């Protein structure tokens, strides 16, 4: 499967409504084999992350965005769950707190960007500030445009100061979301993941899709690419994101820092 | 003295070498009277800051930059020293730490920007990242240009998200710096302010002036103006900065939140 990133990269003319969330372009057709492949890829990502951490040179930021139940948490576990927590940091962004609201919307985001040697996963992100906020008219179109420009500037700055950025839109269908919400309702152990408001947000489905389309088109760039990940299948979603991340890490030509010849003669008393 | 900001605003063709650091365009000619005026202005600033804090609407950022001994600490004390510490925050930026160096140069800066209701003073700032770094060739000209663009984007974003920005270049002459350094050397109680390296940096005087000129010209904007403050006289420096800050606060048309008529009838048991 050469260059999966090209295959899933958001098109400049992206129409979210036309994107089939159920397609599985990367699947072998055998679910067990696909799952095994995800495992293999997750281990390769873990191996490369070990070098990333040792080399302490690159910074990697993975942004996960998607509707409720689209599988952001599942991706963190399934794709990044093999990495030593030393070098990986998953940052969930919830509704902003009062101190966060009393600064610009990028304030809390900037604090969490990766240091050298780190791979950071944003579970939701600054994109919420142009999605839910715009869908509910908490900000007008002019403010939304300004924020999209701020995001472009911010991500370009991060890129120019050495951060590799990968942005994944976990694209599910309204029908699949319904099934997943019903599953959560049926399982008391999953009630903690459920907010009654989640059910209300479904009414704004088309607005959300439209706003994702606007945000993705406005902020896709070669240094901060968006990938549209068909996510109705959890296995395929992980397969896609694992491949995207692995290809990105492979591009970095990571290498352990050079060995120190003098160390070979060291004796430990 | 109408609109002191116009008088001291950096010109687009600023030539730092041509700026007279000893001039005192705001002085009454009577030093005692000037000092008294600084006191009065500092109190007016304090009164307005109290409203700023109560209103919890505006954010104000004052950036102080200047060569060693140019009077940044003295300005914090002399101009902002009357404000209740509840609503004012002075943030000194020293050489970046390892965690700070492992992110982009704006990371530590962004964390310290004012919240609504706050007046924040940056004692040195992100401008160090295009001054000392460029003077000593730690970054090349292309990187310096990129950083200046990052600063422009960052300050525009801060402005568009509600932060009022004031930037003061405390301009002293090489001769005045010599006198102040000698004073520090002569007074054991001032040795804590002295680094032997400060004396070495004097050799790069002209480079620093040139780099200040480049940075100021590249980042002056109506939403983030630079003021060139003649600072050989400490009293005049305070007089100038107090006036600039006061005029800026007056523009905000600050007002205490409306009284609640129902409160008038409240009884305290």
TrEMBL record, chains A, B:
Xref: Gene3D superfamilies: P-loop containing nucleotide triphosphate hydrolases
Which residues are in the Polyphosphate kinase-2-related domain?
Answer: 30-251
The answer on whether this UniProt entry bears the keyword Cell division reads no
On whether S-adenosyl-L-methionine is a keyword of this UniProt record, the answer is: no
Which keywords are on file for this protein?
Answer: Kinase, Transferase
In its UniProt record, a GO molecular function of this protein is:
polyphosphate kinase activity
Q: Which domain of life is it from?
A: Bacteria
| PANTHER family for this protein | POLYPHOSPHATE:AMP PHOSPHOTRANSFERASE, POLYPHOSPHATE:AMP PHOSPHOTRANSFERASE-RELATED
By sequence similarity, the record places it as follows: Belongs to the polyphosphate kinase 2 (PPK2) family. Class I subfamily.
The name this protein carries in UniProt is: Polyphosphate kinase-2-related domain-containing protein
Q: Which organism is it from?
A: Oxalicibacterium flavum
